[in-house]
Amino acid sequence: MSEALTTIQNAIYKNLSWVYILLVSFFLIFLLILAFSKIGNIRLGAENSSPQYSFFSWIAMLFAAGMGIGLMYFGVSEPMSHYVNPALPDMVNPAKEAQLATFFHWGFHAWAIFAIMGLILAYFSFRYKLPLSIRSGLYPLLKERINGPIGDIVDVFALISTFFGIATSLGFGVVQLNAGLVHLGILSKSSFPFQSFIIIIVSSIAVTSAVAGVKKGVKRLSELNLILAILLLLFVLFLGPTTFLLGAFSEGIGYYVNQFADLTFNTFAFEQNGRGWFTNWTVMFWAWWISWAPFVGLFIASISRGRTIREYIFGVLLVPSLFIFLWMTVFGNGAIFLDTHSAHGALSALAGNPDILLFTFFEQFPLATPLCVLAVLMIAVFFITSADSGILVMNSIATGNRPNSPKWQTILWGILLALISIILLRAGGLRSLQTMTLIMALPFGLIMFVLCFCLLQALRTDQLYHGTKIPYGSRNWDGTRWKERLDQILSFSQKRDISNFIKEKVHPAFIELQAELAKKGVNASIIEGNRGGLSIELFIHYDRIWNFRYGVSAEAQRISAYIIDENNTPDIKNARQYIPVTYYSDGRTGNDIQYLGKDEIIADVLREYERYLSIMADEDKAMMFVDKKEYKK
Length: 633
Prior knowledge:
About 70% of the residues lie in helices and about 5% in strands. By secondary structure, it is mainly α. Strands 1-2-3-4 form a four-stranded antiparallel beta sheet.
């Protein structure tokens, strides 16, 4: 199975690596467009809702559930690996390029994958009142069919992806934790019984935390982990080459920003000798982050109620990325600096053994043992936070996001997670499972692409809904003839109704106004059917400026299927209705005047005519309405 899956993965990476690059680039650009547009003001929840967690707690949980354990595993090993084996052999400054590649793999692009998934889930759950599940993101496309087989398939796919992703991470991570305990002398050697014992302990604490819920267990552990991470970071920063590290961080940020566009779209099409590095690192990371998107996205969504889309996007993209940049600089560049100045190549020699590399790095510092103890503690807590948040997400998917699912079900997921991890660790199947997870990332990435367009359609509907104003005819209504108005509200007009409206209200109003204008020396005409259908307009001709037009035409509108299927609504026999809408000489969007009486229509025409004449009288505005065709003659 391992050989077969590896063959499939290599074929995908070789022939479809560009798909991963375009997908991740699209996710990042899409998020930035949303953040800088008016859509960014939309809140993930009701308009009057507020965030359920403080900013610190929110960021701590993002950090712990997203990449926390990966930082401990790759913080030293990835920059060192790029330094020893750079993408291109002729690189002038391999240390600087190693930092850039690490920033790229763990920065904005990676968090964009998590952010887009979390945004889709949070929006449809908190704004549309749908379950917090991936199927909800397909609502604009499938409508009620999301509750059918297609929705089940999508959620089962996400459930399996989440379960296998956490299981493989738990299996690989326990190896590093075991290595750290051996390094400290707590355990005598790395062995399967010790590793199984560690998994059981970590899983037991994770289940206890998950049963306690997000507000108690996960939140407190995440805050503890972030505090420990900051302490470890500060220790290494101030015990190591501080001036060099701070300078490298500043220069690294600038270099990353400068190379951002090239990094985003680079596929090494013109540097074939770098293709192996590209697929083994960049494409692998993009596939890995996409495969983790259901898990991390669901967890981020569950803790982000009440934040605006803009706050959510900038928070998820910027804060964890900047912290990770500092982390990778302190640990990665710190290791490279020590390797060349004092370790005499001892660290670079272990570039292929990340399990022990972190602890060997700490041995280069004065307080080596306390640093190793703190690192082991952090790895353990990161394991627990990844596992307990994963258990909560899997339980949420499996129960359809029901609020009061039984606790035994949460416990069951924790037991299954530990059991599968132990079995795979014993059978040697972790690599195969990881490979299968990475293969599944391609179809799920395409599903995420479809979900983005579903989100865009839903956001457009959201803007239209919240931008809808009180009907034009009701804005200054004084409440007279309210029974007649109620009949109009509860009916959906057809063409014959618009014909009667024009005949009984609009035409008499135009006739009366035409007669009064004639007394003032203004010659107005009434034209019917000028728009190729049911229409009427009051027309005043001018020689040098645009003619004045106030017209009314029948505009067709489709009636929503939602209201047609309701019982407590008027009897609707036709899925299409017609409304009388005004139009003007300058092409402005007209108004629905179906609720206006004859005198109100006259008043509306006079408002438009007053506006027209006031513009004509203003030298700065009148040029707009000059009839240019007359000047051409």
